Structure formats: C-alpha cells, structure tokens
C-alpha cells in the first residue's frame, strides 16, 4: 500500500472521533447495517428507519463538533499553506449545518407522527 493509500485508509478507518464518545450508538456500523438490509431485499420498518436517522443525526452532530474543534488550527495552519482548500471551509460548515437541520427536521417529524410505544404494563402491576 502506498503512502497516499495508507493515509486515505487512516482517514476513512481511523479514529477521528475517537476522543469523543458517542452514547447510544450500536456496535454495528450503520452503513454495514443498511447494506445488509438492502442486500437481503428487506424493507425497513418505520422504527428502524427512525432509529437510523437518529444515528445519522448523532454522527453529523459529532462531525460538526470535530469541525468546530479544529477550525482555529485549520485557519491558522492549513489555510495559509494550502490556499486552494481554504475556500472549501465555509462550504463544509454550511453543508454540515444544512445536513444537521434536515436530519433534525426528519427525526422530529417522524417522532411527532409515530411516537415510541410505551412498554407493556406488567400484569401484576394491574392487579395491585
């Protein structure tokens, strides 16, 4: 593997968000889970689609946090050395913001029209 391939692989597989723990995330990669369902020809339930949008929103929120964290370093250290990428910074931030807004609207809309079901009552609790 060349140095460029290795760097690209680290960027994809590496731990850019390893410093930040994301609670509530499943151990299966959501992309793999989506591929599994697609490959099996399955139709996902409303609840599963809702869960996946919630996972996507958490991931985008994490990316927004990471981008905000590195913004000062990017502006100070990268932009002066690679001016051609500096103009993409605002595009990145606005794209993340738009994605976050859309995912928030979708997840809130789904929750409003299809609220989570209450767990069933224990039969003994009804007898008391």
TrEMBL record:
Q: What are the boundaries of the region Disordered?
A: 1-37
Task: Name the source's superkingdom.
Answer: Eukaryota
The name on file for this protein is Uncharacterized protein
Q: Which organism is it from?
A: Vitrella brassicaformis
């Amino acid at each position: 593997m060349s140095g460029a391939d290795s760097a690209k692989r680290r960027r994809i597989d590496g731990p850019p968000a390893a410093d930040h723990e994301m609670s509530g995330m499943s151990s299966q990669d959501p992309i793999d889970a989506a591929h599994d369902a697609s490959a099996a020809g399955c139709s996902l339930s409303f609840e599963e689609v809702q869960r996946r949008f919630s996972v996507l929103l958490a991931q985008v929120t994490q990316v927004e946090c990471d981008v905000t964290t590195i913004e000062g370093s990017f502006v100070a250290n990268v932009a002066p050395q690679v001016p051609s990428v500096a103009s993409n910074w605002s595009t990145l931030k606005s794209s993340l913001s738009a994605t976050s807004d859309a995912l928030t609207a979708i997840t809130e809309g789904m929750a409003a029209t299809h609220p989570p079901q209450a767990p069933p009552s224990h039969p003994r609790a009804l007898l008391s």
